[in-house]
Amino acid sequence: MQRADAACIAAKDAGRDRIQQYTADDSEMEHRKDVMEFVSQIDKALEEDRFELNCQKISPMDEESENHLHYEILLTVLDEDGTPMPPQDFIIAAETYNRMGAIDRWVIKNSFEFIAANILKLDELGTFSINVSGNSLTEKGFMEFVLEQFNETRLPTSRICFEITETSAVGSLDDVVEFMQKLKIIGVEFSLDDFGTGLSSYSYLRTLPVDYLKIDGIFVKDIKSNPSDYAVVKSINDSGHFMGKKTIAEYAEDDEVLEILREIGVDFAQGYGIEKKRPLFNYWGRPLEITLGGLE
Questions:
Q1: What is the CATH class of 49-283?
Q2: How far, in Å, CA of 249 to CA of 271, rounded?
């Protein structure tokens, strides 16, 4: 049954309206089998609360600007031995087999509780950026769940920025735009992740009401040696500013890259040149007033 299911999914991914035969020596089928095995681990992780929240600093490039330091919240999933699972395989499995909704709800619930419980310690910070899958944005009841979390924690809506990827938004554009518009009314911000890699990035930028553009790290990491990457980053930055968006450069790995980003005029940078990710619950010192809980 698993092999048949993997073949069906491969046929859909290849364009549908075709037959896909499973063969044991097919490398793609073998990869899909591995992905399916990840699903059982995801289900166990949800049952056993084997998630950890980390954070990474998103720092303003100009300290004298009105831009506030903020953080992205990042999820780590642990296997049964307490070892972090490969994030890319984990995400593929969760999105393919409809587990992202439950995972996103766990992250939102626990992140909101942490921020609300420590709001005085975090008073000088800007927003906390939380990744949300495109699958979740179209899931029935997801918006109501988010509003319920704001209501239960009394967390100011201005402290939250939901981060969506360009590719996930495109798959269900109308639903995503509706979700964003309704939450922006109450003060929530949005960031568009991995910008620049899609075929129609600039076209979608006119449609999606985002506050931040995160320039894909693939263009940033080699910017000091690749003139083409420099040109792409400058183009995205200039276009974003023209449309009233603030820009964030990912994969800012050292001082030389940071200096180039400053020269271009990028608003924020994120990467090892700023800070590595750290456990959220230890970052601002102990004791913290919250204990993680699972989904109810």
A1: alpha beta
A2: 8
